[in-house]
Design brief:
The chain is of the alpha/beta class. 38% of the residues lie in helices and 21% in strands. The chain is globular and about 40 Å long.
Length: 146
């Protein structure tokens, strides 16, 4: 496999499966990673799946993608709505980028309606639960091939 796809997950996503399952579902992040790996294998993409609760570590992972990534899918969690640092880092990555949310952020609290990272991504996938990840992989594969 030669095309590395970075899936970057932000704060609190390590608690998926137990954190508010009525909103986020019952699947753990490890299970989602496994499903993503299967989908990436199907598309002949090399998966780099990363999660951190620390903004600087997320930025460092985006910097790694600048060197060897073909695409980034980012679920920045709450940092979506606050981080200019993530915006700047994503802006430096020239390949395709997708912003991902498990829930429909526009059906939630008003502060979640503003995304700092949306202006520098190719598209947003939100509201499909864990399937948001699988839809994003399909979408990024199409963007990589264009």
């Amino acid at each position: 496999m030669s095309k590395k796809l970075y899936i970057i997950n932000g704060p609190n996503l390590n608690l998926l499966g137990t954190r508010e399952p009525q909103k986020y579902g019952n699947l753990s992040l490890d299970k989602i990673k496994s499903l993503c790996n299967e989908k990436c294998n199907y598309h002949k993409l090399d998966l780099n799946f990363f999660q951190s609760n620390i903004e600087g570590e997320l930025i460092s992972e985006i910097h790694k993608a600048i060197d060897d990534g073909y695409g980034i899918i980012i679920n920045a969690g709450a940092l979506t709505h606050t981080s200019i640092g993530l915006l700047d880092a994503l802006n430096m990555f020239k390949g395709p980028k997708i912003e991902l949310h498990i829930t429909n952020i526009y059906a939630r609290e008003n502060f979640r309606h503003k995304s700092y990272i949306s202006p520098v991504v190719n598209g947003i996938i939100a509201g499909f639960g864990f399937n948001s990840y699988l839809h994003a992989i399909d979408a990024i594969k199409n963007l990589i091939e264009d």
